[in-house]
Amino acid sequence: MWRIGDMVTRKSYGKDVCFVIVELDDASETAILKGLDVRLMADAPYEDLEQVSDDELRQFEAARTQVEGECLRLIQSRRAMEHEKRALRRESRFQANPDFFERPGRVLHLDGDGTYLKKCMTMYRELGIRAIGQHVPEAQMPSLVNSLLQQYEPDILIITGHDGVIRKGKDWADIQNYRNSHNFVRTVANARKHARNMDDLVIIAGACQSHFEAILDAGANFASSPQRIMIHALDPVFIAEKIAFTPIHETVDLYEAVKSTYTGTDGIGGLESRGKYRLGVPKSTY
Predict the structure, then answer these.
(1) Which of 183, 176, 163 has its CA nearest to residue 229?
(2) For residue range 71-119, what is the model confidence (pLDDT) as tens digits?
(3) Are 176 and 182 a contacting pair, CB within 8 Å?
């Protein structure tokens, strides 16, 4: 009846999220689902699934486009105001020699989902952020993160993919009740062995419903999800943008950073951190 790749919703949740079937277990008649626009992995019995119609798919796509557009417009508006403020500061600092250039922070983005990674890389280009993306399954992230950090030496590290509270789990404080939070925690802890200072390497980690407290305790600057809600696929990118364009001598405005995301403080939170934006002189002619 059901096939891998089918787009479905869950009737018991009011068909609120569009999923793609990634695994089928005919013995238990259970499907493993991946969110189309949210970083959530879930399971559901066959009887709870309903095929997404073409009309419903268009509605989901329209909602996604609207969400991404609103976030992008908010960022662009904020960037325009920040640019004006910086221009005034630069005028006084570089009056004698206005021949300067700008360098925002560099991002290394590890993503357990290749489709989401492509969306994120497109958004990085849209936002003018230098980013390197690596598709790495969540279980392999802890063992690979240090070699990737040594290879690319980023200013900002994103560790994300899919997560979710396991249906049978009742204790949200127990990390074993999450699909991938333990992998994110181990990856963050290993990354901190490479860069112990939280301002040398800013780490953003987690996905939908991830164990926020454990990820922060492992050494992340920002993490999801304080209220164990679903986060949008691009939310980590929007946090990275604020860090990348905040000057190195300033602390990132936490509320401004989180306000740029779709889910807000229910979905992502963090700790005070310094920005990664630098000015340089002289501007190269080549």
Answers:
(1) 163
(2) 777 777 777 777 666 665 655 555 555 677 889 999 999 999 998 999 9
(3) yes
Render 108-135 in DSSP notation, one character per residue: EEEES-HHHHHHHHHHHHHHT--EEEEE
* 218 close to 188: Cβ distance less than 8 angstroms: yes
Give the contacts of 153 (CB within 8 A, at least 6 positions apart): none
15: which residues sit within 8 A by CB, 6+ positions away?
Answer: 9, 50, 56
DSSP state of 168: T
SS3 of residue 166 by DSSP: coil
What does the alpha-carbon distance between residue 158 and residue 151 come to, in Å, rounded to a whole number? 15
Q: 48: pLDDT confidence band, cut at 50, 70 and 90?
A: very high
Q: How far apart are CA 268 and CA 232, in angstroms?
A: 10
Q: Give the three-class secondary structure for 248.
A: coil
β pairing state of 107-111 and 131-135? parallel
Nearest Cα residue to 264 out of 14, 62, 74: 74
Report the DSSP beta bridge partners of residue 119: none
pLDDT in tens, 195-245: 999 999 999 999 999 999 999 999 999 999 999 998 988 999 999 999 999
pLDDT-derived band at 34 (thresholds 50, 70, 90) equals confident
Residue linked to tokens 């990085």: 124
**Cβ atoms of 184 and 138 closer than 8 Å:** yes
Strands (E), the chain: 7-10, 19-25, 30-35, 41-45, 49-51, 101-103, 107-111, 131-135, 156-160, 202-205, 222-223, 269-270, 278-280
What's the pTM? Answer: 0.86
What gap in Å lies between CA 201 and CA 155, rounded to an integer? Answer: 5
In terms of C-beta density within 10 A (0-12 exposed, 13-18 middle, 19 or more buried), how is residue 154 classed?
buried
Spell out the residues 6+ positions from residue 26 whose beta carbon is closer than 8 angstroms to its own: none
Neighbours of 10 (CB within 10 A): 19
